[in-house]
């Protein structure tokens, strides 16, 4: 069975060089073809710098006859859209373990259209997900994590108004990491379109085996948009978990089945938990209306499943920004908060795991997470109330002390002045005493723990 390597999800992504390149320099470097796609050919080029040599991947149009001005424009547009995605880091709740969502997109280093259109990208040294799978599934925890990571990349693009429309294992490249599993990144945004410019008749060159029904139906009147990406993610997830395509291998059969039938549940093909089935099958729905509303819902459901079936793989280093991960009963609600929407979806049900009595099952883990969430929320509320009471008390004390202080200057008797000074000192003494008692109680509590 293929796997992502040792360790678990990495807590950081290898850096990429910041360089200015030229077509002449790329032509002079050592060149090796590494792949071909619908929108060009990709080469590995060795770049020389003082005291340093590194590899970059360079995408160029395939030379077959005369190159039109439109091709230059298409390459320039692709480069601008792609580079904008990798140059737009957003530190949000979607940044797990110190890795930003944009870091699951292959980085664009430079591009140009001076002599021949080209795009220089970071070199992904571990090949593609298609090469890794080779008709076999990944372990469940790794499959869920890869699916979640790709969803994060696609959601990042969707937030910037960009859809991919050609998601497949060969467009998910892998890079070695020194801190865990290899890192998946989405590449080939050549078919990507800005959502506002999308129309059902302008998308050509997609891969039929991963295409959504609306892409295959010539009579389709529905838009080809972010829901199309969700369907393609469902096909990728199916292969990650089972090693098989969800539909018949013939092109005609795939088109017919996608329009009329549902695929076999993944758990009936591979040894995986049944709780994963509804998540994958919902993404693979032939009806756009019954798919996940947005890819963030799919991402959160995969994250919730990973917390149960792969939680031991999640790194918990103190130097990382570790997400607690949603519990499965509140995943959709949390997604709604992120989307500023009030819609809700079906919750997942955790599958109990077998093992020692001391190991909590899926249901127990969910219940424990919910209790912790409520306790933390209640503690936060009491903390806020306490802060307000202290603030109000402080204001009242300040007014009283100011009034007493003003009285001192109009009292002639030394004895009365001493009494007023004593009254002024009482709040400070009381505060110090309260702090000492609180610290003593806290120390006792720690000692009992």
Per the principal axes of the C-alpha atoms, what is the gross shape?
A: extended
- List how many beta strands DSSP finds: 9
Identify low-pLDDT runs: 198-203, 316-334, 340-388, 445-449
**Residues in β-strands, percent:** 5-15%
Figure out the total of helices. 12
Summarize the helix and strand pattern as letters.
Answer: HEEEHEEHHEEEEHHHHHHHH
- Largest β-sheet summary: 5 strands, antiparallel
Cα(first) to Cα(last) distance is: 45 Å
The CATH homologous superfamily is called Transferase(Phosphotransferase) domain 1
SS content category: alpha+beta
- Count of domains: 1
Q: In CATH terms, what is the fold-level topology?
A: Transferase(Phosphotransferase), domain 1
As laid out across the biggest beta sheet, the strand order is 1-2-3-5-4
The CATH architecture category equals Orthogonal Bundle
Integer-rounded radius of gyration: 29 Å
Portion in helices: 40-55%
Mean pLDDT: 75
Please, what is the oligomeric state? Answer: single chain
Question: What can you see in these coordinates?
Answer:
The chain is an alpha+beta fold. The chain has a single domain, classed as Transferase(Phosphotransferase) domain 1 (Transferase(Phosphotransferase), domain 1, Orthogonal Bundle), CATH 1.10.510.10. It is built from twelve helices and nine strands. It has helices spanning 23-28, 69-86, 129-133, 140-159, 213-216, 226-242, 251-260, 277-283, 295-309, 331-339, 362-408, 414-448, and strands spanning 31-37, 40-49, 52-60, 108-112, 118-122, 162-163, 172-175, 183-186, 193-194. The strands form three sheets. A five-stranded antiparallel sheet has the order 1-2-3-5-4. A two-stranded antiparallel sheet has the order 6-9. A two-stranded antiparallel sheet has the order 7-8. Helix 4 packs antiparallel against helix 6, helix 4 packs antiparallel against helix 9 (295-309) and helix 11 packs antiparallel against helix 12 (414-448). The longest helix has 47 residues, at 362-408. The protein starts with 22 loop residues before the first helix and ends with a helix. Mean pLDDT is 75; it is low at 198-203, 316-334, 340-388 and 445-449.
